[in-house]
Amino acid sequence: MNFETIVEHFQFEGHLQEVIPYGSGHINTTYLVVFSLPDQRQRRYILQKMNSGIFHNCAQLMENIANVTAFLRKKIIADSGDPERETVNIIPTTDGKTFYHSDVDGDWRAYIFIEDAKTYNMVQTPEDFYQTAVAFGHFQYLLSDYPVDTLYETIPNFHHTPTRFEQFLNAVKMDCCGRTAKVQSEIDFVMQRKEDTHILTDLLAQNQIPLRVTHNDTKLNNIMIDDITRKAICVIDLDTVMPGLSVYDFGDSIRFGASTAQEDETDLSKVHLDLQLFEQYTKGFLQGCQGSLTQIELDMLPMGAKIITLECGMRFLTDYLEGDHYFKIHREGHNLDRARTQFKLVEDMESKYHQMQQIVKLSQ
Asked: CA–CA separation, 211 vs 20, rounded Å?
């Protein structure tokens, strides 16, 4: 791939010095590009090739990101913050667009590299988890008055649990790989919770909880943490920023960060909800939200954690039944292991649900 050809389409400063593969993301292909300046300093940027196989309309995706980050910049500046570090900053193309399209090389975008900060794939300390919670909550707060109806839905029905349930039922019915007989207990687990799948979407349909601007991928590694202060400074990976439910954003963080095991752990005895981490995250998230959530949203936070975990387990099981075509696997039965881990976590959440409710109540 001729990076010099791609780079020359962006308004980078300096002379291209180095292109380095960067990060651990599974969707887009990311590079750190280093430029030398006349005064011997360096300027670094992030260059990404977007995955058009998952994101079918990169123009709409980038319009979402451009509009949301412009909105955030204004809020950050008004609050005397640093807009160069506290939000993603797009580097425009030479013709003033938000991304570069090539029929040969695909769709590319660039951002300012945030210096002296990094992301973490695992919780290092409870304080780190707390910091990510504050950041995601603050993200909700800053965008609480954003006109949500102006955003495109970059992946339709991404977190719409009834739709995911219908896709699961279809996978069971089709049984295209002849695998259903091997996983009847997992199928039964989902079927026993059919009524749970539409609890949150029903509340939305009844206007009891609002549609908000949501991140939809609230994992720990989507937060930049300052190297010196250890404070969370910036929410990144805005590809799935679109209309959604705040309780799903909260819940996905809990699913990923407050579990005592890896997402694909095969020893299910290791899989539990860590209530101390749940409490840490709840306090941080509500602090960041600064009172912007409604009372019903607050009441539904534990349900958001349970439902998004169930939904994720359904998606893993659906992919297993369909031949593992969506999620990358690294061993036979990998998606089935992932599904079982999520279902064990759902069970543990159900057993601790009253405690989760009490934690949320005491954190308000």
From this structure: 39
